[in-house]
Amino acid sequence: MPYTLHRGDALAVLTTLADASIDAVITDPPYNSGGTTSAERTGRTARAKYTSAKDENLKDFPGEARDQHSYTRWLTLILTECYRATRAGGVAAVFCDWRQLAPTTDALQGGGYLWRGVIVWHKPVSRPQKGRFKQECEFVPWGSKGPMDVASNPVFLPGIYSASQPRKDRVHITQKPLEVMRQLVKICRPGGTVCDPFTGSGTTGVAALAEGYAFVGAEVSGHYFAVAQQRLAAQEQLTRADFDLA
């Protein structure tokens, strides 16, 4: 299946997409989280917040200095454009952590989507906290652009996924497990187009191509744009080879 990856700011790229040109938005925006106070959320880099790894290939990424109010406003603008570009009955699913769960559900609905629920991503490898409950889940609020035509995509998908972040060959600070993303993209109708305006290292796109969907993405970081391009091109070759063998 074809893919298009744009280098640029997510909101700027989204405004160039045609109305009703995508079928599913599956995305992992910068959480602007990593702390319980505004100073903790806005005063540290992404690397400082989310990883203790020394690997210099895990480059920092921008967009991690918004407080709670500006994050909600910004994400609402993003999802408003996503909504315009989504076909009737299409879906949006947006990753977040516990600190940004409420703002994300607000932004999803503020953007126009009908809120359908919250998917749970359980992370088996996570830090214990003395005297506290362990924070071993992240969340994916999701919704649809009006009623869903379930007859066109009669899948039965779980609401909880359990998988650890990649450790071997990890190429992004907040990289999501490919096995989780390959399941999530199946909410897209067969033969449809998946969009990720925060492509990062390209995992959503790789999952989409592997499952037979077209993909359109945007990435503002030059480093991660190059990583995503390489991964998407490699997956396109694999998918094409599988198709030829079939």
TrEMBL record:
Domain of life: Bacteria
Organism: Mangrovactinospora gilvigrisea
Limits of the DNA methylase N-4/N-6 domain: 22-229
Record has Methyltransferase as a keyword: yes
GO CC, one annotated term: cytoplasm
UniProt keyword RNA-binding, yes or no: no
UniProt similarity note: Belongs to the N(4)/N(6)-methyltransferase family.
GO molecular function: DNA binding; N-methyltransferase activity; site-specific DNA-methyltransferase (adenine-specific) activity
The protein's name in its UniProt record: Methyltransferase
GO BP terms, alphabetized: methylation
Species classification: Bacteria, Bacillati, Actinomycetota, Actinomycetes, Kitasatosporales
Keywords attached to this entry: Methyltransferase, Transferase
Enzyme Commission identifier(s): 2.1.1.-
Enzyme class at the top of the EC tree: transferase
SUPFAM superfamilies given in the database record: S-adenosyl-L-methionine-dependent methyltransferases (SSF53335)
One Pfam family hit: N6_N4_Mtase
